[in-house]
Amino acid sequence: MPHYEPLLKVWKCVESRVDSKRLYYGRFILSPLRKGQADTVGIALRRALLGEIEGTCITRAKFGSVPHEYSTIAGIEESVQEILLNLKEIVLRSNLYGVRDASICVKGPRYITAQDIILPPSVEIVDTAQPIANLTEPIDFCIDLQIKRDRGYQTELRKNYQDGSYPIDAVSMPVRNVNYSIFFLVGMEMKNTRYFF
């Protein structure tokens, strides 16, 4: 029976880059692993990264007296639904727990971006240039927002909110995609593998 020296475990980042203000990429290696361990580690790590890391997002917006989310507001290029989708895309960073309030209050004509959101002190915007709406006329425009830290993806049933408040499907996932690959180590016994994610 051949005797093999124990191999040192390697866990390191082999590639990282910033694709945009809101998108980072990283590639990591973990090796050596015995045959079968790589799949077990890969599945567990993927689930943990996609479902268990908390993130902060906008969960509700209140527009005053807007009859439904498909309405248009005079002096605004986007419909209420388009504004809600733009608010959903805003990436926030915080260490808050519980629900916090934020708001936007501007006078047109002008573009509204994430920079115009008035946030509580514990919350910051990752990309302040993210678009929200375009005011085409000299109108006053205010939105009350609700911010929450959570994990995963939550959807709320759409109702006709009489107070002009609309839920935003919350995407509280800082990690949006995880893939992994398993490679056999060259020159090693077949039971040792290398794991990339």
Automatic annotation (TrEMBL):
<dbReference type="GO" id="GO:0000428">
    <property type="term" value="C:DNA-directed RNA polymerase complex"/>
</dbReference>
<dbReference type="InterPro" id="IPR036603">
    <property type="entry name" value="RBP11-like"/>
</dbReference>
<dbReference type="InterPro" id="IPR036643">
    <property type="entry name" value="RNApol_insert_sf"/>
</dbReference>
<keyword id="KW-0548">Nucleotidyltransferase</keyword>
<comment type="similarity">
    <text>Belongs to the RNA polymerase alpha chain family.</text>
</comment>
<keyword id="KW-0240">DNA-directed RNA polymerase</keyword>
<dbReference type="GO" id="GO:0003899">
    <property type="term" value="F:DNA-directed RNA polymerase activity"/>
</dbReference>
<dbReference type="InterPro" id="IPR011262">
    <property type="entry name" value="DNA-dir_RNA_pol_insert"/>
</dbReference>
<feature type="domain" description="DNA-directed RNA polymerase RpoA/D/Rpb3-type">
    <location>
        <begin position="25"/>
        <end position="197"/>
    </location>
</feature>
<comment type="function">
    <text>DNA-dependent RNA polymerase catalyzes the transcription of DNA into RNA using the four ribonucleoside triphosphates as substrates.</text>
</comment>
<dbReference type="Pfam" id="PF01000">
    <property type="entry name" value="RNA_pol_A_bac"/>
</dbReference>
<protein>
    <recommendedName>
        <fullName>DNA-directed RNA polymerase</fullName>
        <ecNumber>2.7.7.6</ecNumber>
    </recommendedName>
</protein>
<dbReference type="GO" id="GO:0006351">
    <property type="term" value="P:DNA-templated transcription"/>
</dbReference>
<dbReference type="GO" id="GO:0009536">
    <property type="term" value="C:plastid"/>
</dbReference>
<keyword id="KW-0804">Transcription</keyword>
<keyword id="KW-0808">Transferase</keyword>
<dbReference type="InterPro" id="IPR011263">
    <property type="entry name" value="DNA-dir_RNA_pol_RpoA/D/Rpb3"/>
</dbReference>
<dbReference type="GO" id="GO:0046983">
    <property type="term" value="F:protein dimerization activity"/>
</dbReference>
